Amino acid sequence: MRALRDNPLAIAEATSGAPAISGVNPGTVQTASASATLTFTNLPTKDLIEFELISLKPATSGAVLQMQVSTNNGSSWVTNYSYAKRISEVSTGGVASSTQEGEYTGTKVDLSQTSGGVNNGSNNPLCGVVQLFSAGSTTLVKQLTWSCTHANNTSSGIAFVSGGGFVGVATSSQINAVKFYFSSGNITNGSIAMRSRRNTATN
Questions:
Q1: Do 22 and 168 touch, CB atoms closer than 8 A?
Q2: What SS3 class is residue 113?
Q3: 110: phi > 0 → left, psi -120 to 50 → alpha, else beta; which?
Q4: CB 3.0-4.6 Å disulfide test: which of 21, 84, 87, 137 passes with 100?
């Protein structure tokens, strides 16, 4: 236990038994192996929950990475989201080729580029971060932001996607589960790490 307590690497990697530091709670990690979804339940009631998307590769090239949340710990999933998204794509030579912006409503959040989707080549999987705010609040709107990068399936470009919006649930409802999945096929490999930050104010 002392080794974990005094080991910054164990703390940074959220090793089981390592303590929190600077308000960041050690996280949990879901690792894909031909997985239909990566799902987190019993979310902490914190101001900020971060999901680190590490090298996610779809089984089906061209699939879109999507996200939904739940207020009943995964028994059902919220189908009302409103968000804005910006997509910039650069060629493999580093030259900007296109930029898209849009506002969306839907039954899930499309985290990656939808036109072309995510390429499932082995050397450029999807990586990024999703931030969920006020998930455990019973008085505040549930907001989210994200950014990710991945290879586009139908071009030689690399897409950078950033977005933000809110979840269409009552402010009195707490979000206690999140799932990530591709629009078609499984998640071949990769992982998602969840970390949370302690409340900074009563909400």
A1: no
A2: coil
A3: beta
A4: 87
Q: Which residues contact 15 (CB under 8 A, 6 or more apart)?
A: 4, 7, 26
Token representation of residue 108: 């899930």
| Maximum Cα–Cα distance across the chain | 52
Considering only CA atoms, which of 85, 90, 58 is closest in space to residue 158?
Answer: 90
Place of tokens 């932001």: 145
Give the length of the chain: 203
Q: Give me the pLDDT at residue 42, please.
A: 95
Give the residue from 202, 197, 192 showing the smallest Cα distance to 32: 192
Angstrom distance (rounded) from CA 95 to CA 73: 44
How far is the C-alpha of 89 from the C-alpha of 108, rounded, in Å?
23
- DSSP H or E stretch at residue 176: none
The H or E element containing residue 181 is strand 177-182
Q: Residue 18 has what pLDDT?
A: 60
pTM for this entry: 0.84
Quote the CA–CA distance of 111 and 163 in Å, as a whole number. Answer: 8
Residue pLDDT, tens place only, 37-58: 999 999 998 899 999 999 999 9
Residue 94 has pLDDT above 80, yes or no: no
